[in-house]
Give the backbone structure.
Amino acid sequence: MHSTTKLQIGNLALGAILFLLAVLVAVETVSLTPPTQQATVGPAFFPLLVALGLAANAAALFWQALRGRVSADQWLKHDMAPMLIVLAGLVLQMALLTTAGWIVATTLLFATVARAFGSRRIVLDLLIGFLLSAASFYMFNEVLGLSLPQGWIVETFMND
Amino acid sequence: MMETLQLLFQGFTVSLAPINLLWAAVGVTIGTAIGVLPGIGPSLTVALLLPVTSALEPTAAFIMFGGIYYGAMYGGSTTSILLNTPGESGAIVTAIDGHAMARKGRGAQALATAAIGSFVAGTIATLAMTFVAPAMVSFALLFGPAEYFGLMVLAFVTVTAVLGENLALGMASLMLGLTLGLVGIDNQTGAARLTFGIPELLDGIDVVIVAVGLFAIGEALYQASRYRHEKEEIYALKGSLWMSREDWSRSWKPWLRGTAIGYPIGSLPAGGSEIPTFLSYVVEKRLAKKPEEFGHGAIEAVAGPEAANNASAAGVLTPLLALGLPTSATAAIMLAAFQQYGLQPGPLLFENDPQLVWGMIASLYIGNVFLLLLNLPMAGIWVKLLLVPKPWLYGGILAFATLGAYSLNNNIVDLVLLWLIGIGGFGMRLLNVPVAPCIVGIILGPMAEQHFRRALAISQGDLSVFYNPMTHPLAVSLLVIAAAFLLVPVVLRLRRA
């Protein structure tokens, strides 16, 4: 596909998203309580302004895309596969976070992201990921008092 | 005047306390490091560090954030010069001649004029801020809700119209931010807006999630899709590391002119660092003895814009502290940091918390000295950071991004929101939609609504507070200026077409 076409489709998609959001905001807030004596402007007024703005903006984007007012040199080449691997790493981390704990989950996230960026040294990536997540775990939990999940490994073997 | 000096002196006693000196040093070191690392800017770093606000007392935190902001401005020039990849928009101009100098083997001189220029500009501009901020505060005391609303609309429009070439795309970013800002309980009536029955959304979407999602996740996804297509070449530092007599004589005037351009523009509600750096470049080119060298490694073209960039950073902090008005993405996130402490920058903060405000301002002077020491003799060491391989750089960024998002409320919903916003940020990067308006929208949107409703409550529903120049001259003129920023370029373009 020609890059101008891609950019046009992108602009149309963005316009469509804004338009849907406008409808959503309007439908969700129009039913809110009307203004009372104390407050002259109710909780629905500002959202409706935003909905109007969203709709107007969507119209501008449609107009711009259909008139071909997008310049093709703004579109750069990109690959979807590495980007999806990064996303997969994030999902994996979330899935493991509360069970396996921060250190394991984030070590795997680190290694997955490194893989997505073309690294082939899996063992080294895992090692560095481990050092980084262990250090951040210690730093934030012990020194700054946050509570990152330690997971069952630490719970089973370290806390007796 | 005397009073200001007295307050500044008190500020120095706060910031010279050993523990605060330590935070300033930590701030400038982190700031420089992240400024040097490609792909990470000051806004992302401050966003990633927002969780520490739960553990630090406010003065220490803001001394550190101030140091990070200034440090990132120094460090940003390094990637521009040696890699030709500006880390943030204020360093774009520096890359033109700075990189040309590096190709000629004069990278060390380019770094030196940038560092010393940043020191000169940062110090003079901080001095200017010391006196302008209290004046702005006394002006702001005249402001009522209608005026604050006008000021915020002006900030929306200028952030949108100034950043990025395409107005519709910039507005789209702003509108998305305003929409995200609506989510949660309306604090005047208690009505739940756009929460879709999800209890975690009742408190609203945290700015940290949006900022980290757009800057860190969105950027990492984008870079992952691009790394195969980008080739970077680092130019090693070689030869004499010091500036020659000629370099000095060609640099000092651009430093001062850059400061004079950067500070006032940065401190306007329309501020930012793009306009001052471009303006400084144009001015230096016009005044140069050898304008033909511009674009091929003219030292003036590094000295001037770098000074303008640092001066505008101090400029941006002025309305942030005095009015609570952020004019850049970093300032918007610093405002979010103030909100984490329940503090609202503005006249009241100067009144109630002089220790914090003046301690932070005084620490900026100290931070500048630290930065000069960190950057001049150690430039060669910082350059080594450029060698961190991308796989590890982005692995680390994502580890800290998820850490920041998760530790806000210790729940998984925030992580899912983080990816969704990150995917949105990726889409915005593909289409060249600027991110800053979205951040400013989500932070200022709820505040603008509050002022809007308060203004109408005071006037008992009379809308004329926004258009009658006799009763509210300030509010009306702010709104008129905002409308002009928005409409004049459109009209000009239609006329040309």
Chain A has a mean pLDDT of 85. The helical segments of chain A are 3-30, 45-66, 80-100, 102-116, 122-143, 151-157. Chain A touches chain B through 73 residues (CB under 8 Å). Chain A has six helices and no strands.
